[in-house]
Amino acid sequence: MKATYLDPAVGQYVLAHTTPPDDLLERLAVETRAATGGHAGMQISPEQGRFMTMIAQMAGAANVVEVGTFTGYSSICLARGLAPGGRMTCFDVSEEWTSIARRYWAEAGVADRIELVLGPAAETLARFPADPPIDLAFIDADKPGYPVYYELVMSRLAPGGVIIVDNTLRNGNVADPTNDAASTVVMRAFNDLVRGDARVTSVLLPVADGLTLIRKN
Fold this sequence. Notes:
Strand content: 15-25%
Radius of gyration: 16 Å
Number of strands: 7
Number of helices: 8
Order of helices and strands: HHHEHEHEHEHEHEE
Largest sheet: 7 strands, mixed
Strand order of the largest sheet: 3-2-1-4-5-7-6
Structural class: alpha/beta
Distance between the termini: 33 Å
Shape: globular
């Protein structure tokens, strides 16, 4: 469970009462742990993946953007929820880790719906067209870059479009006023930025390590 701020029994109950991932996602999670070692915690959790597929389905998302792809778990979940004919663009800096994603996209049958753009997202996103507008975006990359990615996506987001942002609770540390770790301070500032943005309506959910849903008004 990524939600370490929850009682472990509650966390296990959540998992037990969420539709589990299929064999492909299970194998991807296992390979990710073997291939990336200590970085494997960057992968989203099973209940988060199921939630994101449902959000994409409910939004009828046809133009989806992901900032931070890692080994492809989240992109598969989002691509599976795309509207018929929908497309997804993934932004990442690692050719090594996204090579795993490419293999699993092909096996999942979603490779023809996904375009991977390698390079610093602050630069590549700035070149991303505003037309057609983005329907749904997922931000899960380097945390200091969140404000930049948020603004670049927001300027291209359709009215009523949704941004999902990961790790916004930072293991619950954002709620501890005595925690002044750099990662905690950065995330608090981002959460305050979103909360003060009159262009959006937002809700911070205690899903996995904190998942913020942001809807453009």
